Amino acid sequence: MIVGDDIKYFQSSSGKITGRSYIDIEREARRAYNRIASQTKREPYIRSVYFRKEKIFLKPFWNHLHEKHEGDRKRRLKYFHCALDLIRNSSLPPESKNNPNSRNEIAHRFVGKTKTAEKFAVQIKEDNRTGKKYLMSVFPINK
Description:
The chain is built from four helices and eight strands. With 143 residues, the protein is α+β, with helices and mostly antiparallel strands.
């Protein structure tokens, strides 16, 4: 846990994915995702400390990611390992807001720092009716 700017950041033990091209970065992120996916017959998930070891489903992240242009995808995918580490190990409370477009959803935003002290955010969507949680987005914070 790192405190700065009046915000508590989770200190990730993972670094950013390195690579010059989008293909190299996506290949490494997909490798990590496929490792997780091979552990279950159904939808891939990881368990979160903050949500009392509940499942966080990962598939919606890839759907959301492919709506972005290639440069933005590359920028976001670099933080994929850090995001997985944050979800698995962070016990710091997120900034949570009700979704203004859908009353049945809550958006949780966790913040963290990479090994090299670069700030990033992870957004998790929670469905109030089912209680399921989904990784929606990962992105750097430029503050």
